[in-house]
Amino acid sequence: MYVTLNAMKMFIAKQHYSKKVKLCFFIGLVLILAGCASSSHTPSQTTSTDHHSKGNTNNDNKTFKRSTPLKYSKGHQIVSIAESLVGSPYRYGGASPRGFDCSGLVYYTHQQLDITVPRTTRQQAQYRPSKQLNSAQPGDILFFRIYGNNVSHVGIYTGNDRFIHAPKSGKQVSYANINEPYWRERLVKVATLH
């Protein structure tokens, strides 16, 4: 760059221009060279809002941070939202980052994508027809019979035999494995709600 500036100075000095024209030319050249040396990197654009933070759970209006581009399937987007909520506290009747029960987690993740689903586990289980576990896709819903004869628990299938759920009071939203005998024996339905 030093050689270029000296060459330009010598060229300008040989020409018979006024001092003002020479100064303007020199300033313009410096600005052009400075512009070429600056970074043209633009930060990537993402659609995001504040996501759940363990440190601040007093806001029911928080939404997730979308880390999955919108071009991915609805199921993958549901999983991405659910993953952002892992660690959220369990709260009976909860359907917000302040706390979730199992059906509230399903309700909330779908709501963030403008997908209407019923609020309770029983209603969610009746909402769509069953499918086979071996055809489950990320974002599908797993229904379990924990107490009695009725469906009483629900989780979001993430793929690779794992699901995310809000287990019970005193616990947090977490991953579980469908191949664990406890869950496998209690699984009664797989369905797509989106």
Nutshell version of this structure?
The protein has 194 residues and is of the alpha+beta class. The protein has helices at residues 2-14, 19-37, 74-84, 102-111, 121-127, 181-186, and strands at 95-96, 99-100, 141-144, 153-159, 162-165, 174-177, 187-191.
Structural features, described:
The radius of gyration is 29 Å and the shape is elongated. It has a 5-stranded antiparallel sheet with strand order 6-5-4-3-7. Helix 1 packs antiparallel against helix 2 and helix 3 (74-84) packs across helix 4. The protein is of the alpha+beta class and 194 residues long. It has 2 domains: 2-35; 74-191, endopeptidase fold (from Nostoc punctiforme) (Alpha-Beta Complex). It contains 6 helices and 7 strands; from the N terminus they run αααββααββββαβ. A hairpin with a 2-residue loop joins strand 1 (95-96) and strand 2.
Derived structural class: alpha+beta
Shape: elongated
The stretches of 5 or more residues where confidence is low (pLDDT under 50) are 1-5, 33-68
CATH architecture of the largest domain: Alpha-Beta Complex
Neighbour order of strands in the largest sheet: 6-5-4-3-7
Kindly list the characteristics that best describe this protein.
alpha+beta; elongated; 5-stranded antiparallel β-sheet; 194 residues; endopeptidase fold (from Nostoc punctiforme)
Secondary structure layout plus pairing:
Blueprint (H helix, E strand, L loop, with lengths): L1 H13 L4 H19 L36 H11 L10 E2 L2 E2 L1 H10 L9 H7 L13 E4 L8 E7 L2 E4 L8 E4 L3 H6 E5 L3
Antiparallel strand pairs: 1-2, 3-4, 3-7, 4-5, 5-6
Helix pairs in contact: 1-2, 3-4
